Recover the amino acids of this structure.
């Protein structure tokens, strides 16, 4: 618990932790709003394809115009100012940058930037969980071999869940399940950027619809983001997916241990040691009270009578048997918390979660009947959603990873609900993301399903 002290030491030495942010979207802007106020931290550069938008985002996050007016990265480092550019590669290559924050949300871009950061000896905080789900285990292995840190992003739910799991195991508890909450109904898997408003308007008051990207928001609604994030958790912790992926059982915060335990013990899980996402909506459309829609959780087992008695005595949210108990965090603060990962990578050389094996995958799954010749439009679009599947099953079946289901043409008809395969699309084997994914499949051909 000494990150702040370490940051102050760097500040006192005149060597603040230097950061380059790639992607000035919502997550990146939230990080910027707090990074400016964090002693011992210096965001030296922000790279975004739209420089005008990036500068507007900095201004909206409270940055004075003179603070991000540096004409060069070298000048920004000398003046403790911030350089805004559209050249991410120059940012990555500059020797004055210690930590790269990748926040583009684009799988191929995330892979390219991570490889560049590793090549140039930079730590990388991978906000881009889409890239992590596609090839994170290989990127983390390459980073470790190069002596740099590859880290999941604190403030995003996967890193918080990893911390829950680490806490439980460090206390000697067996982890039964871990995950998060979301809003879910079965028909959400068919939602698209046009009709997603029918769902969003029920629980979000968005007056200006032009202020958000409906395709991005739809990836949260249609189940894709849950599959991506639980894949990141499995690959970082040693937990495994259930054979049919996530079932999204409705549960209040106080029912987590009752619901998220094995079916043999009265819960809904097929086994212990898995991920699950709970829903804040009952199947009949009613809202679940005291839900966990923005939070994270872990369910543990008390393996002794003494521990189970303590669960009850200390209000640890036990199930009715008293054998299982839950710990939860009600919210996550997205980019506002990201400085934890940056400081941990730079000062402790420790990630806030990182892949240790290839245990889970995200398969592109047809939202509707698709026809040969259609061009897939990727995450949150009209064609596919991302289903969490065991990595071994994905490799055996030749499933097409969701992160590669963008701008590729279908070679055959695919029925609604069917997982697509590599052989179903005309992909470019020379594409960087394709090559890295294929390299990962070869490197982890027998997925490691042991504890991380």
């Amino acid at each position: 618990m000494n990150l702040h002290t370490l940051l102050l030491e760097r500040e006192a030495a005149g060597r603040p932790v230097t950061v380059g942010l790639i992607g000035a979207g919502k997550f990146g802007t939230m990080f910027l709003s707090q990074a400016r106020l964090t002693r011992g931290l210096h965001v030296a550069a922000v790279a975004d394809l739209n420089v005008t938008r990036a500068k507007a985002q900095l201004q909206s996050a409270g940055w004075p115009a003179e603070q991000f007016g540096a004409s060069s990265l070298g000048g920004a480092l000398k003046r403790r100012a911030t350089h805004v550019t559209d050249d991410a590669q120059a940012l990555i290559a500059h020797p004055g940058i210690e930590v790269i924050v990748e926040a583009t949300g684009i799988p191929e871009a995330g892979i390219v930037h991570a490889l560049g950061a590793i090549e140039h000896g930079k730590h990388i905080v991978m906000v881009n969980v889409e890239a992590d789900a596609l090839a994170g285990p290989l990127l983390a292995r390459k980073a470790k071999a190069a002596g740099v840190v590859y880290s999941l992003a604190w403030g995003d739910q996967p890193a918080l869940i990893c911390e829950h799991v680490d806490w439980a195991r460090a206390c000697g508890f067996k982890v039964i399940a871990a995950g998060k909450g979301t809003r879910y109904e079965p028909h959400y898997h068919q939602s698209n950027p046009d009709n997603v408003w029918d769902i969003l308007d029920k629980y979000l008051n968005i007056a200006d619809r032009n202020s958000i990207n409906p395709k991005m928001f739809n990836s949260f609604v249609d189940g894709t983001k849950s599959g991506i994030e639980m894949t990141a958790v499995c690959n970082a912790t040693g937990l495994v997916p259930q054979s049919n992926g996530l079932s999204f059982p409705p549960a209040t915060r106080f029912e987590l241990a009752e619901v998220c335990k094995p079916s043999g013990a009265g819960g809904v899980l097929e086994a212990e040691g898995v991920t699950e996402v709970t829903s804040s909506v009952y199947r009949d459309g009613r809202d679940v009270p005291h839900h966990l829609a923005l939070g994270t959780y872990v369910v543990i087992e008390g393996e002794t009578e003494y521990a189970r008695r303590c669960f009850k005595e200390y209000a640890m949210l036990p199930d009715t048997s008293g054998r299982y108990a839950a710990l939860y965090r009600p919210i996550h603060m997205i980019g506002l918390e990201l400085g934890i990962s940056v400081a941990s990578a730079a000062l402790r050389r420790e990630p806030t979660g990182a892949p240790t094996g290839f245990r889970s995958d995200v398969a592109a799954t047809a939202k509707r009947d698709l026809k040969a010749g259609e061009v897939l439009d990727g995450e949150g679009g009209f064609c596919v959603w991302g289903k969490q599947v065991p990595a071994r099953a994905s490799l055996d079946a030749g499933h097409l990873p969701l992160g590669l289901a963008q701008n590729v043409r279908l070679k055959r008809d695919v029925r609604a609900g069917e997982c697509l395969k590599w052989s179903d699309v005309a992909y470019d084997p020379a594409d960087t993301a394709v090559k890295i994914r294929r390299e990962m499949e070869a490197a982890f051909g027998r997925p490691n399903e042991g504890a991380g």
Observations:
- Residues 158-184+223-332 form one domain.
